[in-house]
TrEMBL record:
Substrate binds at N70, G132, A133, G134, V135, H142. It comes from Microbacterium ginsengiterrae. InterPro entries: AP-4-A_phosphorylase, FHIT, HIT-like, HIT-like_sf. PROSITE patterns: HIT_2. Residues 44-153 form the HIT domain. It is an enzyme of class 2 (transferase). Its EC number is 2.7.7.53. A motif (Histidine triad motif) lies at residues 138-142. Pfam families: HIT. This is ATP adenylyltransferase.
């Protein structure tokens, strides 16, 4: 059989032809195979700070809270600000945790604006499973960068997000741009 014939035959291997275009993202298989809860027995936000920053996508650490990339981002650069303490809701946070979560959120916005040239942000906390929290036992604030041109048909029609950068690349650029604390 000629190569051309093989290509024609291969076109029929997928089953009945349809009008769908395929977006192949084999790097996402790691997330799919991990299942809905990559850390089933431990809280991912309690575990992350115990490991090297690059391994768990941590970009900055404070005294009472830290910042990491979302493993399942809505957009490239989607950050999470988490207290180190395992608390479920904002009203359980101490005044120090509230202040640092706020300060880290502001810094995260400034850094994302610098490294990604985003046009705006979505900020939010989903508290409790009923409110949409994927990890409902550990408080976390979302910082989602937005661009005037980031809307396309993928999320609306195909329930798919096209992310132009790998998580490791985003973590490197955000961590490198994060202001270093003054230590006396």
């Amino acid at each position: 059989m000629s190569e051309e014939g093989m290509a024609e035959d291969a076109a029929h291997l997928a089953g009945i032809p349809d009008a769908f275009q395929r977006l192949w993202t084999p790097h996402r298989m790691a997330y799919i195979q991990a299942g809905p809860e990559p850390l089933r027995d431990e809280c991912p936000f309690c575990e992350a700070p115990k490991h090297p920053d690059a391994e768990r996508l941590v970009v900055a650490r404070g005294e009472t809270a830290y910042v990491l990339l979302n493993l399942f981002p809505y957009n490239s650069g989607h950050l999470l600000v988490c207290p180190y303490r395992h608390i479920a809701t904002y009203d359980q946070a101490t005044p120090e945790e509230v202040a640092e979560i706020g300060a880290l959120t502001q810094t995260g916005m400034r850094v994302l604006r610098e490294v990604s040239r985003c046009d705006g942000f979505n900020l939010g906390m989903n508290q409790g499973a009923v409110a949409g929290a994927g990890v409902d036992g550990h408080l976390h604030q979302h910082i989602v960068p937005r661009w005037a041109s980031d809307a396309n048909f993928f999320p609306i029609i195909a329930k798919t997000k096209a992310l132009p950068q790998l998580l490791g690349e985003v973590r490197e650029s955000v961590a490198a741009a994060w202001p270093k604390p003054d230590r006396d």
